[in-house]
């Protein structure tokens, strides 16, 4: 990370690590100068961090210089994006556009040092206010119990496993408590309002799993967040994407079943001439309908398989490793695909059905014909031989 000196170093938990002072990793390192609710100033932040004004100025200047690697004297979107990448923050965890917007006071697309400094002042005071609200004992440290209480009061139900992972992610020195310095490092570049709900969802974005084409589900979903919201959002997104690509899907299937030389343009002309515009969307309704059950089955199968693999390995489901996640994801995909395979088969038959009248066959009648003429095993042709 050239140009940043010792201002920023990467840690595997994606913190913004700033110049550190010599501190002991115990309660004596904690400091909360505000013992009861009230106005918060930069002086309170300095006392909590045990920094002098000069040390804080140098820290902020060093962080600005890290982002301003080209030494232009200002930051733009490209520099902020590159800086976040330089911190090795995952793409889904970055807020470059939002960070630029909240720092850019005059909306000219550039953030000079004064703009950056104002953001740092406001953000650190905001973070200290919520830190103070969570630290009900006012000893300068957040204990897991205090964090759990704050989450529950915000309506977020979280189990002990999630809480342990939350604290572990923020607690850089692994002493079981969160100091204000650790809290600040975790949230300093988070440009949105630092409410307990936003902070929890921000942490959730770090702990996510991708289990396939239709489902990217945060691992730390609480009961408060409601899994159904993810399925509804994923279902809508899946339906929109499948509808947008339906003409290509229809053409792909038509070309695959041609016994003569497959040509794209004649296939397009034939569909247009015989069925019109809607012909390109034949079978799309069924394609859209299978999105939700496929995603739901895949997600729950993945969770169950993670638990099973964790038990076999003698650990918990969080620590099954890359190989375990790959195995669980692959098996979950196979289970989901097998479950919705009959719908896939009917969709393919519907898309390739030759109709002289130009009218697509009735879906129910088509499925009934397959059942009567070929038997129930026909719905698994290609899986069951």
UniProtKB/TrEMBL annotation:
Solcar repeats lie at residues 225-308, 320-385. It is found in: Mitochondrion inner membrane. The keyword Cell inner membrane does not apply. Residues 55-90, 91-126, 127-157, 158-193 form the EF-hand domain. InterPro entries: EF-hand-dom_pair, EF_Hand_1_Ca_BS, EF_hand_dom, MCP, MCP_dom_sf, MCP_transmembrane. GO terms for biological process: transmembrane transport. Keywords: Calcium, Membrane, Repeat, Transmembrane, Transmembrane helix, Transport. Pfam families: EF-hand_5, EF-hand_7, Mito_carr. One of its GO terms (cellular component) is mitochondrial inner membrane. PROSITE patterns: EF_HAND_1, EF_HAND_2, SOLCAR. It is a multi-pass membrane protein. GO terms for molecular function: calcium ion binding. Belongs to the mitochondrial carrier (TC 2.A.29) family. This is MITOCHONDRIAL SUBSTRATE CARRIER FAMILY PROTEIN. The lineage of its organism: Eukaryota, Viridiplantae, Streptophyta, Embryophyta, Tracheophyta.
């Amino acid at each position: 990370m050239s140009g940043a000196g010792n201002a920023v170093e990467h840690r595997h938990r994606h913190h913004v690590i700033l110049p550190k002072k010599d501190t002991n990793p115990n309660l004596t390192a904690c400091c909360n100068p505000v013992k009861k609710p009230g106005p918060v100033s930069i002086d309170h932040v300095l006392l909590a961090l045990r920094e002098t004004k000069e040390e804080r100025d140098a820290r902020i200047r060093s962080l600005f210089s890290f982002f301003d690697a080209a030494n232009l004297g200002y930051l733009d979107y490209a520099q902020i994006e590159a800086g976040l990448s330089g911190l090795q923050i995952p793409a889904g965890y970055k807020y470059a556009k939002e960070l630029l917007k909240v720092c850019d006071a005059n909306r000219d697309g550039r953030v000079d040092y004064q703009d950056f400094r104002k953001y740092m002042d406001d953000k650190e005071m905001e973070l200290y206010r919520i830190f103070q609200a969570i630290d009900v004992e006012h000893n300068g440290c957040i204990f897991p119990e205090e964090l759990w209480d704050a989450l529950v009061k915000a309506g977020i139900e979280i189990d002990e496993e999630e809480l342990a992972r939350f604290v572990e992610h923020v607690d850089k020195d692994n002493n079981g408590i969160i100091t204000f310095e650790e809290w600040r490092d975790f949230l300093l570049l988070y440009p949105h309002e630092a409410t307990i709900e936003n902070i929890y969802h921000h942490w959730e974005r770090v702990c996510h799993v991708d289990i396939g084409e239709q489902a990217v589900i945060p691992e730390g979903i609480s009961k408060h967040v409601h899994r159904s919201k993810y399925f509804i959002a994923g279902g809508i997104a899946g339906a929109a994407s499948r509808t947008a690509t339906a003409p290509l899907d229809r053409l792909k299937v038509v070309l695959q079943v041609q016994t003569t030389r497959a040509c794209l343009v004649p296939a397009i002309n034939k569909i247009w001439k015989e069925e019109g515009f809607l012909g390109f969307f034949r079978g799309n309704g069924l394609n859209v309908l299978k999105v939700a059950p496929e995603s739901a089955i895949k997600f729950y199968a993945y969770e169950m398989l993670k638990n099973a693999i964790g038990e076999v390995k003698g650990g918990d489901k969080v620590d099954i490793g890359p190989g375990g996640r790959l195995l669980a994801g692959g098996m979950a995909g196979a289970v989901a695909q097998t479950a919705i395979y009959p719908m896939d088969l009917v969709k393919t038959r519907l898309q390739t059905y030759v109709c002289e009248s130009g009218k697509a066959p009735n879906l129910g009648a088509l499925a009934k014909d397959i059942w009567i003429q070929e038997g129930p095993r026909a719905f698994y042709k290609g899986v069951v031989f």
